[in-house]
Specification:
The protein is an alpha+beta fold. It has seven helices and four strands, in the order βααβααβααβα. The chain has a four-stranded antiparallel sheet with strand order 2-3-1-4. The protein binds adenosine-5'-diphosphate and magnesium ion.
Amino acid sequence: MAIERTLSIIKPDAVKKNVVGKILSRFEDADLNISAMRFALLSKDDAAGFYAVHKERPFFNDLVEFMTSGPVCIQVLEGEDAIKKNRELMGATDPKQADAGTIRADFAESIDANAVHGSDSSENAAIEIAYFFPSMNVYRR
Ligand code: ADP
Ligand code: MG
């Protein structure tokens, strides 16, 4: 299996709940390395640009509103099969459907406030990492 990178965002609900460290531990305990990280308060344009693939969806405006409602903590995670591994750690988009022990089952309230974002493919991971981090800021092992 290949070493991959994926873009992770700890969303405003989880930052407000003060569980950033607990969520980061899930990544580290699963052998995902944190290769870059920063907090940001996204503007509407930042959030709309990031979620541009969803701009025709009925929930788009609510999603942009939510993602700009407070600070987020953005990471690059690196490791074997990182994209799929992170999606497994996250659990289903709707926390009510998420498997026990996943981040969304343990820390999220609703499909809107669902604690974390994770890239869904290597193509999107590359686009999303470049959206937030200049390559010089991503630590390489
Ligand atoms: P994921 O974050 O699991 O990759 P999607 O890419 O499908 O999910 O959607 C992006 C985000 O948009 C979700 O994390 C969630 O916050 C929000 N979202 C998705 N579907 C809905 C929905 N039906 N109603 C409200 N919000 C939604
Ligand atoms: Mg997605």
